[in-house]
Every structure is written in C-alpha cells, then in structure tokens.
Design a protein that fits this description.
By secondary structure, the protein is an alpha/beta fold. About 35% of the residues lie in helices and about 20% in strands. Strands 1, 2, 3, 4, 5, 6, 7 and 8 form an eight-stranded mixed sheet that branches. It is globular and about 55 Å long. The protein starts with 19 loop residues before the first helix and ends with a strand.
C-alpha cells in the first residue's frame, strides 16, 4: 500500500536505500572538490542543489528528478548562462593532461570550459559560430564555423579537439587532423552517442571521468586516441 512518500509513483523505487548518505558524500567529494572560486556553475549553482537533496549521482537520477522541483528549469538556466555540462577539476585536469595543454574547442558556446582551461594554464583556441545571443566567458572566442576553421588550419594537428555536447551531423571530426579527441556528453567508456560506427573503429577510448550531472542527464568525459 502506498505510504504517501514521494516515491509512490515509482512503486517505491529507491534502489540506493540506506547507502545513499555514503554514496552522496563519496560522489560530492569526487566531483566538487577541491572547491575553486572560478567555477560558479559547479559551486554556486549545481553543488548547493545536490547537497540540499542528498544527490548521489546517476544511480539516483529518478528520485532526484522527482524530489527537486524545478530542477529541469534550473538546468535550462545553467545551460543558457554557463554550459551544457558541468566541469569538475578532475575533468579539466584530464583534458590538460591528455592534450599536452594545447586545445581547440569547436562549438565552445559561452566559452565557459575554455575559460576554465585557460585559467589552468592551457593554450586554448575556442571556436563558435556565434549565431545565438549568449553570455561570453571567453572573450577570445573566434566567431567562425568550426569545420571551416579546422580546414583552414589544416586540421589543427598539434591540438586536442574538445567537443562539449556537439550537434548531430557535424563534420568536425572529419576536418580534424590530430590524434586526441575529448568528448563531453551522454555515453559510456566505450562509445558516445556522437561517434558513428566508422568513427568508433578509428578512435579508441583511453580515459574517462564522471561529471556532476543533473537528473535524467548522464554526462561524462571521455578521451579518445586515434588508432
């Protein structure tokens, strides 16, 4: 019989049970530490929400979606002002380590990730079509078509290609001549939604990390090397 709990509509779904407090702390410790002042999306927007409801990561998506009213609108605001995905220090360090500190981000949007990478010492080129009116966290963003930019600079072979939630159908990867691809989006360690079957054969995943996520969103960062 239903007991009036918020989980009744899921038939009492609560797979984490008594493990939730420990998993919550473990997850927050991984994705939100160390706290750095220049990442407001993580520490001023996402982290207070996650701590308030005891969010324990992707295992907790359905419960969190129901418990946190307005979270989808909150995510939409975060996307418009900051980024489609929430960067962590682990993710930023992983990009720098595997890129050798030289990155070209295509479809950089507001430039939020580019700004954080730049502040951590990376040499970043951020390219965006600039068709939408959006905030700018990286004033040096080059307003240009991403594929055309890569073609013009012979595929930027000396830089890692960074893509955060790229659009379906983009031919950016075909224009890229380097050997390191960093993808942020929904996927798993072996593949992402963005790579087609041929690309999966050409690119091998070599590293990945979890990211701070919103309920219903399964973001992660995956680093690929060209075979």
């Amino acid at each position: 019989m239903a007991d009036g709990s918020p989980l009744d509509f899921l038939g009492g779904w609560d797979t984490l049970g008594d493990r939730r407090p420990a998993l919550h702390e473990s997850y927050l410790n991984r994705v939100a530490t160390p706290a750095v002042d220049d990442n407001p999306l993580l520490h001023e927007v996402w982290e207070p929400w996650a701590r308030k409801i005891g969010y324990a990561g992707q295992e907790d998506n359905l419960r969190a979606l129901h418990m946190s009213q307005g979270v989808l609108f909150q995510r939409q605001q975060a996307v418009a002002r900051y980024s489609w995905a929430v960067p962590s220090e682990e993710a930023l360090s992983m990009i720098i380590a595997h890129s050798g500190g030289r990155v070209v981000e295509v479809g950089s949007g507001t430039g939020y990730w580019a700004n954080l990478l730049d502040k951590r010492g990376a040499d970043v080129v951020a390219v965006d079509s600039g068709k939408e009116n959006k905030p700018s966290w990286f004033p040096a963003t080059i307003v240009f078509d991403g594929s055309a930019y890569l073609h013009f600079y012979k595929g930027c072979p000396d830089r890692a290609l960074f893509l955060c939630w790229p659009r379906h159908g983009d031919d950016v990867l075909e224009a890229y001549a380097g050997d390191t691809l960093v993808l942020v989006g929904e996927g798993d360690e072996g593949a992402t939604w963005w790579l087609d079957e041929d690309a999966e054969k050409e690119w091998k995943p070599v590293a990945s990390c979890v990211l701070p996520t919103w309920p219903g969103i399964h973001d992660m960062l995956v680093v690929y090397k060209r075979n």
